[in-house]
Structures are given as C-alpha cells and as structure tokens.
Amino acid sequence: MCLAIPGKIVSIEEPSESDSDLSRTGIVDFGGNRREVNLSLVPEATVGDYVIVHVGFAISTMDEAEAEQVFTYLREMQETEETVGRAS
Predict the structure, then answer these.
(1) Mean confidence (pLDDT) of the chain
(2) How does pLDDT run across 19-36, given as a tens digit for each residue?
C-alpha cells in the first residue's frame, strides 16, 4: 500500500534560469521532521502551504484544516496500534 503524507512548506528553492522547472524543491515539515521535497508538480504552492507528499514529490496542495484532520487520523492510528501491540 502506498501512502501520501501532508506536510507544511517551510522554504522553497526556486530553479535558476538554467535549470528546468523540475528542479523546484523545498523543505517540508512533517510534524517536526523536515525533508527536502520536489515541488515541481505544485507550481502554485508557496511557503506556509500544506502539500500531500508521495515518494519525495508534492502531488497536491491542501488547506490547513484538512491537513490537521489527517494528522488527527494518523495519531489515532498510532495510538490504536500501540494499544493492540500491548494487548498481544
């Protein structure tokens, strides 16, 4: 199963004129873990936006409320997994 995770863009490195548009990258924060992400598929994204990231590529933008709901679901899943693991 593949999973795309939301994160918040904290910085963007725009490509130079000699680079292709595919070299647009940024640093995305995933709940305290920051990773470099390719932003070429979301040219409209700006610092502060939330993006859905799959295998190192931001594939779409989302609003903050939607991102927070996903974070809530992920926390609930982790808590459930921990509870089930202790019961085994």
Answers:
(1) 88
(2) 666 789 999 999 899 999
**What token pair was written down for 18?**
């000699």
Long-range contacts of 51-55 (CB under 8 A, 24+ apart): 51/6, 51/7, 51/8, 51/9, 52/4, 52/5, 52/6, 53/4, 53/5, 53/6, 53/7, 53/28, 54/2, 54/3, 54/4, 54/5, 55/2
Tokens of 8: 């918040």
- List the domains of the chain with CATH numbers: 5-87 (2.30.30.140)
Distance CA 28, CA 34 (A): 5
Measuring CA to CA, which residue among 64, 51, 62, 63 is closest to residue 24?
Answer: 51
For the chain, how long is the longest CA-to-CA vector?
57
Instruction: Compute the chain's Rg from CA coordinates.
Output: 15
